[in-house]
UniProtKB/TrEMBL annotation:
One of its GO terms (molecular function) is ATP binding. SMART domains: AAA. The keyword Nucleotide-binding applies. Coiled coil: none annotated. It comes from Herpetosiphon aurantiacus (strain ATCC 23779 / DSM 785 / 114-95). This is ABC transporter related. Keywords: ATP-binding, Cell membrane, Membrane, Nucleotide-binding, Translocase, Transport. InterPro entries: AAA+_ATPase, ABC_transporter-like_ATP-bd, ABC_transporter-like_CS, ABC_transporter_ATP-binding, P-loop_NTPase. PANTHER family: ABC TRANSPORTER ATP-BINDING PROTEIN. It comes from the Bacteria.
Length: 256
């Protein structure tokens, strides 16, 4: 099956600052694909170029087999986006938000169905400001899916949520995939990518420094640990390696 997204040698410069130096990866239909990296690594800049929000400085982006530069409006109709630090006017109700976002797309699904699917029917008349953190995230997911896109980009969806709301949101992300969508997930939570993602790209200083399944990355790290002649106090016990340990080593930080 052809990949739904192919990014090749993407670069994004802001003046002299090279935020994205060389990012390449491809994503298969139905994957939950994670993008992780330290603050300022270039994750959001990469995603913003991929969704057509910012022009790339160099490189090519193909979504659903079409080049972003030539087919921008087609591609925008096929992607759903929940951007970092998304918010809505305090007094806008859930139903109004869904109707408003639906009005942007000719092929929008009936908002009454979407509100039911995402368990927000009881909050239809609730103002955005009065929703819980978890309900706000559910609304943002529903809004990103109102036009029935094929690929959904979720940037730091669970930042600021308490652990319970975060876990509920994980289930929602899996529900998005169950509905046949491909999910691109940008997050700082390593447990989140380890549990949810089929594959992960680790971006550091504007380049992809690792790309694989979480299990394979963890296995490679464990293998390396066993090769060490003297156990280091900075490294965790090999049986308890997590993706977070792998991530910290990849970006050059001590694991514990
Ligand atoms: N509009 C902009 N103008 C100038 N510099 C920018 C702009 N947007 C981002 N940058 C810079 O580009 C670099 C990459 O930022 P970006 O937001 O893409 O990183 P990130 O990996 O998403 O970080 P975070 O995890 O903190 O969200 C940072 O040094 C940032 O300050």
């Amino acid at each position: 099956m052809a990949p739904v997204l192919v990014v090749e040698h993407l670069q994004k410069h802001y003046g002299n600052h090279k935020a994205v130096k060389d990012v390449s990866f491809s994503v298969e239909a139905g994957e939950i694909f994670g993008i992780v990296g330290p603050n300022g690594a270039g994750k959001t800049s990469s995603v913003e170029c991929i969704i057509g929000l910012r022009p790339a400085t160099a490189g090519t982006i193909q979504l659903l087999g079409r080049d972003l530069k030539q087919h921008g409006s087609y591609i925008r109709s096929k992607i759903g986006v929940q951007l970092q630090q998304a918010t809505l006017p305090d007094r806008l109700t859930v139903a109004e938000a869904l109707q408003l976002f639906g009005s942007f797309y000719p092929q929008a699904r009936p908002w009454q169905k979407v509100i039911e699917e995402w368990g927000l029917a009881e909050q239809a008349k609730t103002a955005f400001a009065n929703l819980s953190g978890g309900q706000k995230q559910r609304l943002f997911i529903a809004l990103s899916l109102i036009h029935d896109p094929e690929i959904v980009f979720l940037d730091e969806l669970t930042t600021g949520l308490d652990p319970q709301a975060r876990r509920i949101t994980w289930n929602l992300i899996q529900d998005v995939r169950k509905r046949g969508k491909t999910v691109m997930l940008v997050t700082h939570f390593m447990e989140e990518v380890e549990r949810l993602c089929d594959r992960i790209a680790v971006i550091d200083q504007g380049t992809v420094i690792a790309l694989d399944t979480p299990d394979r990355m963890i296995a490679a790290y464990q293998h390396d640990l066993r090769q060490q002649p003297v156990p280091s106090r900075d490294l965790p016990h090999p049986e308890r390696v997590t993706f977070e340990d792998v991530f910290l080593r990849l970006i050059g930080q001590p694991a514990h």
